[in-house]
Amino acid sequence: MALLITKKCINCDMCQPECPNQAISMGEDIYRIDSDRCTECVGHYDIPTCQQVCPIDNTIVVNPQHRESNEQLWDKFVVLHHAERL
């Protein structure tokens, strides 16, 4: 499951530099998460770092449009980081 940044976002810039997959970027009004790059930090951390550093509770949530199993997140992690090393 990719994560989603809700309209509660205050653009504090805490989440973007913490993302190990470079999945977070500034959108039109608030930060957004690229579901093709988000692994919920699988392969890096036990819990998503963006959720940990966000100062506003329930601003970064599971995206209901992009549900993925833990295995799918691992596969995405391998593809993303193997391709970057080539």
Automatic annotation (TrEMBL):
Cross-referenced InterPro entries: 4Fe4S_Fe-S-bd, 4Fe4S_Fe_S_CS, PSI_iron-sulfur_center, YfhL-like
GO cellular component terms listed in the entry, alphabetical order: cytoplasm
Cross-referenced Pfam families: Fer4_7 (PF12838)
Domain called 4Fe-4S ferredoxin-type: residue spans: 1-29
SUPFAM superfamilies linked to this entry: 4Fe-4S ferredoxins
Gene3D superfamilies: 3.30.70.20
This protein's UniProt keywords: 4Fe-4S, Electron transport, Iron, Iron-sulfur, Metal-binding, Repeat, Transport
A Gene Ontology molecular function term of the record: metal ion binding
PANTHER family for this protein: PHOTOSYSTEM I IRON-SULFUR CENTER (PTHR24960:SF79), PHOTOSYSTEM I IRON-SULFUR CENTER-RELATED (PTHR24960)
NCBIfam families named among the record's database cross-references: di_4Fe-4S_YfhL
Protein name: YfhL family 4Fe-4S dicluster ferredoxin
